[in-house]
Amino acid sequence: MTTRWGVAGTGGMAEAFLDDFAVVPDAELVAIGSRTLERAEAFASPRGVVGMTYADVVAADLDVLYIATPHPQHRDLALAAIAHGTPVLVEKAFTATLDGAREVVAAAREAGVFCMEAMWTRLQPAVATARELVAAGEIGEVTSVHADLGAHRRYDPTHRLFAPELGGGAVLDLGVYPISFAQHFLGTPDRVTTSGTLFPNGTDATASLLLSYDDGRGAALSTSLQAATGVRATIIGTRGSIELGPEFHHPTRLVLRREGDPAQEIDAPALGRGYSHEIIHVGECLAEGRTESPLVPLDDTLGVQWVMQEALEQLGITPVEGTVDLS
């Protein structure tokens, strides 16, 4: 069965995602939506698909809508698509706020409509291999996770990465990756402790997070828009460890270290740019009649969103949702 896709958004994220339709034969791009019809058509025409406004694409005849706009616009677009009965794949960060995420999840569950956060990392072959090794007990019981994701970006308060009204800042844009990685292997923490620095306009430039669990497990995470980091993640167990990266959020290899054994390198390349695995997984979920992904369940998304909101509040930041004109 061919899955018919629409895309809301015409930025860099949407463009990267669309490249992988070429390597997924049972997925078809049919529509692209933007704030203006002119922008949508300019983006859609070279790809041989229909350009639409946001109001039209959320109500279009689609199997699934991928939402790739800035974070504060995700809530309104997802709610509108769900109201029309259209399944949604919502780019990370899922929303700008925890309340916004709860709204979308509640609407999807009440309507029985498929909804998933586009956390492509969880679907990468290398991460799937790590998950299988952990489940098989290869490193014993998981006790902690270490992960970092930082990149140097020139400060520009008008750019999406730094603008508060567009969900700018390190935590929502990059920090979501190490937080989601830790949540995947440890679950949602009991406490979050955060320190960091701010840009002149008040958005978060760096953040270091300690996730604590009542049973003694923990995660040490960091993110930055001011400096490039190693972009590695390590899962530590009672009998060994698994290291992914660089870059851990779309890795092609991992290193397994077990007590008394030499390190074992395992190659696990992605198909295309790696977004293909999301496209394939969503198609499989829809074909099976699922309303949630077993690998990126909505409760995990809410847990990640809670950690991000706790971190931002500790940095003195109150994120807000935006509004999208769907008239």
UniProtKB/TrEMBL annotation:
MF annotations from Gene Ontology: nucleotide binding; oxidoreductase activity
The record's Pfam families line, in alphabetical order, gives: GFO_IDH_MocA, GFO_IDH_MocA_C3
Alphabetical list of Gene3D superfamilies matching this protein:
Dihydrodipicolinate Reductase, domain 2 (3.30.360.10), NAD(P)-binding Rossmann-like Domain (3.40.50.720)
Domain GFO/IDH/MocA-like oxidoreductase: from-to ranges: 128-243
Gfo/Idh/MocA-like oxidoreductase N-terminal domain location: 4-117
Can you tell which superkingdom this protein's organism belongs to? Bacteria
> Per UniProt, which keywords does this protein have?
Oxidoreductase
Q: Which PANTHER family match?
A: OXIDOREDUCTASES, TRANS-1,2-DIHYDROBENZENE-1,2-DIOL DEHYDROGENASE
Q: Which family does it belong to?
A: Belongs to the Gfo/Idh/MocA family.
Query: Can you say what this protein is called?
Result: Gfo/Idh/MocA family oxidoreductase
